[in-house]
Design goal:
Elements lengths: L3 H9 L9 E7 L5 H13 L5 E4 L10 H12 L4 H11 L7 E4 L2 H7 L1 H10 L2 E5 L8 H10 L3 E3 L1 E2 L5 H10 L4 E4 L14 H10 L6 E4 L5 H10 L3 E4 L1 H8 L3 H19 L1
Parallel strand pairs: 1-2, 1-9, 2-3, 3-4, 4-5, 6-7, 7-8, 8-9
């Protein structure tokens, strides 16, 4: 499995100087169960996912909308814990091409200890880390320890982030910069705010690091729109989580495979 940086470098060089836009699906670990999660990761990997974001279920997911909150609640109620997620990943990641980016809030990291946490997720094959409630001012130590274990810490820029802070985040973020396209929590929306387009241009003037846009993208048309704005990656979460949760696990797995392929075809 490549690192996050290697994945973007490969996409940048894949079309004779014309970079290919990356697709980053998000699913919640343990919903409906970890066996299905393991299958889902492999299906996404085969159907166009360039990187995959995997959410660790958490009891107070402040950045997540109702679809992902409900998935996390179901996973926790069925007993999904971080150790279970890492054990599953250790079995699956050797068979994946797409790097795994773990999405977790800071409390589980604090509870386990930063060094132990980074060591354990690296051993499970994780290549990237997103911590939505980690302030920039407190990110230096996390970045230092994670980097020592080969893990890229991806920082977020919101529509309300001031320009000087965007510059500081762009300098510190690793692998890519995660641009939140809307003010608020995750979730499917009928339109993507045009503010994201302006922010893309603004960030592009500050850094040559890849920029991924997420929160609110729910169909191939919106994915194409974001790609045309100049995004290096399209991040789609709630639309995958909802499809995986609907019907039987087999039906959910087929639905996310088809959806992933349609999104990748739209942005390729």
């Amino acid at each position: 499995m490549n690192s996050v940086q290697q994945c973007f470098a490969s996409l940048r060089d894949s079309h004779q100087g014309s970079p290919e836009c990356a697709l980053i699906p998000f699913i919640t670990a343990g919903d409906p169960d970890l066996e299905t999660t393991a299958q889902a990761l492999q299906i996404l990997d085969r159907n166009g996912a360039d990187l995959i974001e995997l959410g660790v279920p958490y009891s107070d997911p402040l950045a997540d909308g109702p679809v992902i909150q409900a998935a996390a609640t179901r996973a926790l109620q069925r007993g999904t814990r971080l150790d279970d997620v890492l054990e599953m990943l250790a079995q699956v990641t050797p068979h994946l091409k797409a790097p795994i980016i773990l999405f977790t809030y800071y409390n589980p990291i604090l509870h386990r200890g930063l060094e132990t946490f980074c060591q354990q997720i690296a051993q499970a094959g994780v290549k990237g880390l997103v911590v939505p409630d980690l302030p920039l001012e407190e990110s230096a130590e996390v970045i230092k320890v994670a980097t020592a274990h080969g893990i890229s810490v991806v920082l977020l820029v919101a529509p309300t982030t001031p320009k000087d802070r965007i510059h500081a985040i762009a300098e510190q973020s690793q692998g890519f910069i995660y641009l939140v396209s809307v003010t608020g929590v995750t979730g499917m929306r009928t339109e993507i705010q045009s503010r994201a387009k302006d922010l893309l241009t603004q960030i592009r003037d500050l850094t040559d690091k890849p920029i991924g846009v997420g929160f609110g993208i729910s169909d191939p048309e919106q994915a194409t729109q974001v790609k045309n704005w100049g995004a290096d990656a399209v991040i789609v979460g709630s639309a995958f989580v909802k499809r995986l949760a609907d019907g039987t696990p087999a039906e959910g797995l087929k639905a996310i495979g088809d959806f992933c392929a349609s999104l990748k075809a739209a942005i390729r």
